[in-house]
Amino acid sequence: MPEKPRTVLNNKDGSTLVYIAQGEFIMGHTQFGIERPPHRVKLSSFWIGQTEVTNAAYRQFVEETGHTPSAYADDDDFNKDDQPVVGVNWDEAVAFCQWAGGRLPTEAEWEFAARGTDGRLYPWGNDSPKPTRAVYGHTRSKTATPAKVGSKPGDQSPSGVLDMAGNVLEWCSDFAARYPTNSTEPIVDPHGPPDGTERIMRGGCWKYHEITLRAPQRLFTLPNLRRNYAGFRLARDA
């Protein structure tokens, strides 16, 4: 089991943030082209949400700012306080994070928080996913929904961050692009390319199959996407 994480309460939205100490790891994988090549990344310390942002927190943001509600704010299957907020596009996720005193995690931060330094394939290690460990695989279900955040304690990273394999996909700050192919020294605090048409999403979700739960998995996604299997989590500089 992971060591007890160092945490802090984010007063603005009431969420718990986990401290991720600076470090170096191998980002990416050899299995799929979009994840190649594996390359060394060195990151500064940062904080990241222990769970995805909840409906309760997003509702507070909307009430205080007058911002657009989530696309599923009136859907009782997706709007429970302790479920992750879904139906939020990239710009809306950014706006929430700024209101909450933080930002979206970079793609590298997200993967480091999910995998740690030992090259594991899933947040919990290299064992294959099971329905008792993560929320996923309800592709054909007409009744499945996101679970309460943190409801699968087995879906826990080495740092003590929860739900990084299943439940909902998560926006990252980066524009989407292939990884660099000519880096020999560690890339320090990468933020992705300066422009582009798509953004990065990470993690698996309640709807997708087992293969998508791999920590190096990455999705190139149009930033206006608002779906019932896509949310985000808060990050903050240390």
Structural description of this entry:
By secondary structure, this protein is α+β, with helices and mostly antiparallel strands. The chain has a single domain (8-237), classed as paralog of FGE (formylglycine-generating enzyme). The protein is built from three helices and eleven strands. The chain has helices at residues 55-65, 90-99, 107-115; strands at 7-10, 15-20, 23-27, 39-43, 46-49, 169-175, 187-188, 199-202, 218-221, 230-231, 235-237. The strands form three sheets. The chain has a four-stranded antiparallel sheet. Strands 9-8-6-10 form a four-stranded mixed sheet. It is globular, with a radius of gyration of 16 Å.
Topology:
Blueprint: E1 7-10, E2 15-20, E3 23-27, E4 39-43, E5 46-49, H1 55-65, H2 90-99, H3 107-115, E6 169-175, E7 187-188, E8 199-202, E9 218-221, E10 230-231, E11 235-237
Parallel strand pairs: 4-7, 6-10
Antiparallel strand pairs: 1-2, 2-5, 3-4, 5-11, 6-8, 8-9
